[in-house]
Specification:
Helix content of chain A: 25-40%
Strand order of the largest sheet of chain A: 13-12-11-10-9-8-7-14
Distance between the termini of chain A: 30 Å
Radius of gyration of chain A: 23 Å
CATH architecture of the largest domain in chain A: Alpha-Beta Barrel
Order of helices and strands of chain A: EHEEHEHEEEHEHEHEHEHEHEHHEH
Number of strands of chain A: 14
Structural class of chain A: alpha/beta
Number of domains of chain A: 2
Largest interface: A-D, 56 and 55 residues
CATH superfamily of the largest domain in chain A: Aldolase class I
Largest sheet of chain A: 8 strands, parallel
Oligomer: homotetramer
CATH topology of the largest domain in chain A: TIM Barrel
Strand content of chain A: 15-25%
Number of helices of chain A: 12
Amino acid sequence: MIIMNTDATEEQINRVVEEIKKYGLRAEISRGAFRTIIGLIGDERKADIERLGGLPGVKETRMIETPYKLISREYNKASGPGEECAVIKVGDVEIGGDEPIYISGPCAVESREQVFRIAEGVKMAGAHILRGGVFKPRSSAHSWQGLGAESGDLAIEALTWLREAGDRYEMPVVTEVRGESQVDLIAEYVDILQIGSRNMYNQDLLVKAAQKGKPILYKRHFGAGAEEFLSFAEYIASEGNKNIILCERGIVPVGKGKSFTRYTLDLGVVPAIQKETYLPIIVDPSHAAGRRDLIFSMSCAGIAAGACGLMIEAHYNPSEALVDASQLITPEELKEIITVCQQIHKATRARANART
Amino acid sequence: MIIMNTDATEEQINRVVEEIKKYGLRAEISRGAFRTIIGLIGDERKADIERLGGLPGVKETRMIETPYKLISREYNKASGPGEECAVIKVGDVEIGGDEPIYISGPCAVESREQVFRIAEGVKMAGAHILRGGVFKPRSSAHSWQGLGAESGDLAIEALTWLREAGDRYEMPVVTEVRGESQVDLIAEYVDILQIGSRNMYNQDLLVKAAQKGKPILYKRHFGAGAEEFLSFAEYIASEGNKNIILCERGIVPVGKGKSFTRYTLDLGVVPAIQKETYLPIIVDPSHAAGRRDLIFSMSCAGIAAGACGLMIEAHYNPSEALVDASQLITPEELKEIITVCQQIHKATRARANART
Amino acid sequence: MIIMNTDATEEQINRVVEEIKKYGLRAEISRGAFRTIIGLIGDERKADIERLGGLPGVKETRMIETPYKLISREYNKASGPGEECAVIKVGDVEIGGDEPIYISGPCAVESREQVFRIAEGVKMAGAHILRGGVFKPRSSAHSWQGLGAESGDLAIEALTWLREAGDRYEMPVVTEVRGESQVDLIAEYVDILQIGSRNMYNQDLLVKAAQKGKPILYKRHFGAGAEEFLSFAEYIASEGNKNIILCERGIVPVGKGKSFTRYTLDLGVVPAIQKETYLPIIVDPSHAAGRRDLIFSMSCAGIAAGACGLMIEAHYNPSEALVDASQLITPEELKEIITVCQQIHKATRARANART
Amino acid sequence: MIIMNTDATEEQINRVVEEIKKYGLRAEISRGAFRTIIGLIGDERKADIERLGGLPGVKETRMIETPYKLISREYNKASGPGEECAVIKVGDVEIGGDEPIYISGPCAVESREQVFRIAEGVKMAGAHILRGGVFKPRSSAHSWQGLGAESGDLAIEALTWLREAGDRYEMPVVTEVRGESQVDLIAEYVDILQIGSRNMYNQDLLVKAAQKGKPILYKRHFGAGAEEFLSFAEYIASEGNKNIILCERGIVPVGKGKSFTRYTLDLGVVPAIQKETYLPIIVDPSHAAGRRDLIFSMSCAGIAAGACGLMIEAHYNPSEALVDASQLITPEELKEIITVCQQIHKATRARANART
């Protein structure tokens, strides 16, 4: 839709109409008492709306349709009896199905013994999928960047431990792909590729990871609007890979002074995004809170909001961990969270499913 | 704490120490390899930290203690067997007690019949407290500002209807005090004075309302950090009124594009603030969502996060309402929310109470 | 404009059309391949768009016109040979005229001697208007709130000193009106009433201050969008008072970690707002920076962006000041700023004036 | 610095002290009336502060020193007669020297003729460096992604045109490296590698680009705090490449409603960052504004704030451009901007240089 200035000339209006026609669209002119508005009839994505906004006499332009048609619930419904509620299957685990799934494991893979011990713990606690970081994104260039940054074959060893621990305790495994050069290697070892928050906008990585065909666990950037998050998820879908598990992990806090949590968990997007797209969305309370004493409450809130699962970092001895020590919980605490969350899920799902 | 520049001179350091002493505090000098840091021993609030920050050679200053000592859980615990978890009693209703409380009613009071009909509906649904706006804060100067803005005695009539509906259906009543000039009038009619989000920083209103001695329902501003929220709540407590019910109602969305909710509900602050202060906190999903199809999920999430209650706007026929029509739910929907929330509350409180 | 769901029924569309007609508007139905959009022909502000958004089958609504028609440049131009570029005259000073104006003085009035000494200094430096705070809004309830908060007649004394210093050094004076109860008193003493950032949304204060008929210096809230700022300025204009001097003073910083400035000065709004409204806008670098070593650069940037003036806090001995010590500059530094800013203004105004 | 809870036990305090010693640091215990604070004496970056924050009895931790020591002005000064104000030389052009530099060219390279014609235009206008996008990062997966995304050798052709145009008109050239796989190719053709806003956090790309040894034009992410920006610039410096040109290009707007600019240009960081680091910083008004009628004012403001240069997109016929049409200016407009900016620079540099 093109909104003209009040003093736009006929010539300027005609120019806009002609440019619209060049894109193979029809222009509908609506002349109000105050100004003229020109609608695009047809698929407005065929036009370069931004370019039209640069034409003389144009005040502003607005998109009516979403930029993420491939993953849009409304588009899919309109285009036939399409997918209404994707269920992503990884081994025996269904993400987006009737039951929430729980992903847990160490923040960073540190040793074979550590991964196995934690894997056993979280499996006992009720987790379905094992996580563990090998290539760690860090805020400081001087912090430890995970075993993936060590010389020699430590990255491969770490991935092997993760894979074997997953096999041993019958959980699919997921790890973060931080850069393009890691995609091929990691895809050999894991079932789900994670794109971290800081890489949400990294379209080259999205495309390369998507092409592997494996499910993608895709985290919202902490500075991204919800619509932007979906627009970039479309990069994955555009490669023909619709096995996308969205993940809300908190946005930058607003306002002066302490926020008391590291990031602001935006739980309103959980039901809202599930109305916009047929993809499942999970919640990561660990990175949002940044402190272990809030993980329980924020996990419960995530499931109550309708999340399809949670991703929670765990360690048998949190203060020993090399990364994110302050936000880790023990497998025992994880078990308590899962128990309570299942009750919450039961209470809420009695009502019409949030995803329909 | 005063952090000096690396090239701060002895003279500059001495000047800072002397200024600290003038405030009746002791200065502790810590000379590192790289720079000197000066700690304030004693009650650092006696000093004007900002002024010290302006002295020559000072790089920056940082407060260690909170600016909200009167409502701080830690300060209260430290100063003796103080209040650890305030329960605010309004008639028979306890806010911050064992059970969540539900505040509901119309967005705006429109007629006697409307208030009574909605009051009856929300009472049947399980609400404990009746709300209704008489003086409405609006984004546009050209929107209807509530009956309080009409000529004649309509404000008094509207307040009377609200009072009588509360009495009739045995619910205490709350309404927003938008400006100082309304405090005396409103305090005659209602049990709880609401300070709205837009007035969070309005210290003159806070002080005047606090002096009435009635409980204050105090909403966080949508641009306020969590610490700032508590710092301004301290204005109320400073008047000797600690009957403060905090309320999270959403902050401004971050990032480009649509946010899908009107504001971003920050549910992490619910448990976090309850660790910082002994005051109860409730959640307002209606204004955060701005759309009725998300109220159920966001209500459940609020209670799951540990909120002491919810404030939800209701109407028997939402599309007829003069204000906030798109976010209103029916009393029937409210009943369903309360039913599910009680199950969630039961599931979560089995664990150690979030407020202790 | 009303955007319908793709599966909206004819009945739902008809309902929307009928509701639009009830507001005395005409509905224009545009049926696309994918969905129906309904335009409102006539003055869309007559309709309650939010209410229409709550009707069944409606996906979303969008306003085309601004909510601030009284102060809109486009509306004024469209409605005849109206005001295109307001010049607000206060005594001999013209705000919004050919030359930028400089407002300076102490952050807080502390004593007669202090006000006079600073007034003399800033006058010599080239300032046109004298500022000084009597009722200080503070972040902490435990900080000094200005002489206005002291018992006895200190508020009146402080206002008298400010008035007399202004008269003595031939500068109009401005002070902040923090609460409604101060409006009558302050209006007796000063030429311009300042509404501070924290009160931007305080519509009762806006209305009461506007009714005095004196120019209003109106600061943007640090959490307010630019459009919201103008929408609330409309409350002042709605009282028939269009002598509004807008002021940008910084918004809350975005992102993790230190921002290096207390607030983020949004200088893009300076030219942008002057295209939206015919009102003048000035810049306050002092509160945005929060540190004196950036005042020079941010002042220059403000004038270069096209601001109609600057408001800068000054003190002959910054580290002695009771409030905002870290951001105060001396009259000598002010003089240097004004000298350089005048050169910048000369360089930029050669080009077509930013306000036309 | 480790801040303990008020009720921390001696045992907990001792544990913290011991953990600090394990990092080779000394712990300084400061026992206040209210709580104990433990300072780290030595290089606190040796310790994992986050891990210490997870120990029992710890309330919170705070870093005193910056995480970006390699690019810190203060660290460099302290460690001897180091670099105080980097000047980055690219051919005959000095970035960070006495005069601001101007980078201009098309948003996207579209054809040989287009690049040459624009290169000639911006050279005539006074530009020093030629820019042109080959691999374009786009918000929508369905938008044109630049010639780099086309099949065949179009990427190489586009880079060749850019290189030849730079040689022909005697300007070094810069283009964006959007993904790791493009680094080697692009480094063969251009003089400066640009890391775009969306890749600010992409540490794998930063490292790979840095290793080429060529200057890096490094843009702040629109959701990044200023300190975070410098922390990630440290990734480049850690590879031994200190030829970093920082670039401010706007952050996400705060608040409801329209912002009138696409992003919020944060000009306060320009002088602030130049006090924190010895690296030069430039400003990109084009992407911040998103509309051409504000480019003049925002360019002037950038130079007035002390920027070492500007990057501005230009086109001989803006409405013909395939990308960013609404924000492009003509070479003639660029010439006017440069002329006025040089006058502003002259006016401001008379004063002590902002970078010292």
